[in-house]
Structure formats: structure tokens, C-alpha cells
Design brief:
elongated, mainly alpha
């Protein structure tokens, strides 16, 4: 077809209609990604401090830890060959969102952002 018969108007009109959803999705996804990153960092920091505290108490014979029992209790919570744990969170965060693609891209950008 000749270039003059193809019009960019339908494409630009479609993008103009989708732009609010895409920009809101990206912004909310970015904010969610930053929040998830900080929450995970805080949770890992708390877990590390807890382990150091428990080990110090065990070192000074103030506490005895039954590590096989701890492992047995934690095993059901850890992914072990099943579906990836991030899949559930992804389904929860994008449920009923018309802009799930932009939201997901925003989450990935937010998690990768420095700061």
C-alpha cells in the first residue's frame, strides 16, 4: 500500500485514550515497587537482627534452639519446587486492574530504582 493510504490517526487516537490508564498504572506500579523493595529490606534486616540475637543468647547458654524444629515449622512457608512465590503476589497486585501491564512495568522499574 502507498504511505498516503495509511493513516496514523487511529493509532494516535487509541494511544490518546489509553494514555491516562497507562500513566496512572505506571505511577502506581512504580510506587508499589519502591514500597515492596523497602518492606523486603526492613523484613530481612529484622530477620537478621533476630538471628544475631538468638545466636548471642545461645552462645551465652541463655537459650537453646531446636533448629530441626525451626526448619520443620518454616518448611511449609518456603517455596520448594512449587510455583514461584512472586506469582501469588503478582496476581494479588494486578487483580481487576485495567492497566495491569503498565502497573507491572512500573513495579519492575520501582524495584530496580536506586533510592
Amino acid at each position: 500500500m502507498a504511505p498516503d493510504t495509511l493513516s496514523a490517526a487511529p493509532i494516535t487516537e487509541a494511544l490518546r485514550l489509553l494514555l491516562p490508564d497507562l500513566s496512572v498504572g505506571m505511577l502506581l506500579g512504580f510506587a508499589t515497587g519502591l514500597a515492596l523493595k523497602r518492606i523486603v529490606r526492613l523484613a530481612l534486616l529484622a530477620l537478621g537482627l533476630l538471628l544475631i540475637t538468638v545466636q548471642l543468647l545461645a552462645f551465652f547458654d541463655l537459650l537453646t534452639v531446636n533448629w530441626p524444629r525451626v526448619q520443620a515449622l518454616a518448611a511449609p512457608l518456603l517455596p520448594g519446587g512449587g510455583p514461584p512465590s512472586g506469582a501469588w503476589l503478582g496476581r494479588v497486585l494486578t487483580a481487576n486492574l485495567p492497566f495491569a501491564g503498565a502497573f507491572t512495568a512500573g513495579v519492575l522499574v520501582g524495584v530496580r530504582a536506586r533510592g
